Amino acid sequence: SAVISQKPSRDICQRGTSLTIQCQVDSQVTMMFWYRQQPGQSLTLIATANQGSEATYESGFVIDKFPISRPNLTFSTLTVSNMSPEDSSIYLCSVESGSSYNEQFFGPGTRLTVL
Amino acid sequence: AQSVTQPDIHITVSEGASLELRCNYSYGATPYLFWYVQSPGQGLQLLLKYFSGDTLVQGIKGFEAEFKRSQSSFNLRKPSVHWSDAAEYFCAVQRSNDYKLSFGAGTTVTVRA
After folding, report:
1. DSSP 3-state percent helix, strand, coil across chain B (nearest 5)
2. Per residue in B43-91, pLDDT tens?
3. Which residues is A96 bridged to in the sheet?
4. I need a surface site. Which of A17, A80, B13, B99 has the fewest CB within 10 A?
5. Looking at beta carbons, which residues of chain B come within 8 Å of A25?
């Protein structure tokens, strides 16, 4: 399985600011995903990021609020823009396994608190 | 669209006792099914998966799950739990032609001594 790291692991931010979260994988992957896990909730897919193309956002998520970059096959960033306390969540990136079975492996997550 | 229901929000089990976590899915065709575990402060770890074939699937850490098409269920079991099994468990479903995962609400497992 792929080894995935995220930076930062946690942060406390002020309302109205932005935070960029990095996701690094130890092998080349085609598809990377960003999820949000609000306090006490399950995971919700924010967007799918493929290298060389625009990210595909799920219903309820927009590029202006969550811009994503995917400059190469091992790295992606998610920015949470103009933050409010409602953005306090764990943000996780995941990658597809590359096997024929569409498994996903997850990073450790970034715990964001917005004051 | 596919969806997943985990009816139990929280389960408390004694160490050494058996554990069963319920998962029901809604999907028109045969889905791909997964169980993930999230320990406190950790990311998600894949426990096991079902795509086709034998309906009883073995996973890591002594877990197994059984796919029952007639009941649209994919329940997770462990014969004897250890204190380290205290965590949150998520069932997830994926369409066979898509990478997108839909997660259940999760079940929190507490293990008492």
Report:
1. 10, 50, 40
2. 899 999 998 888 999 999 999 999 999 999 999 999 999 999 999 999 9
3. A104
4. A17
5. none
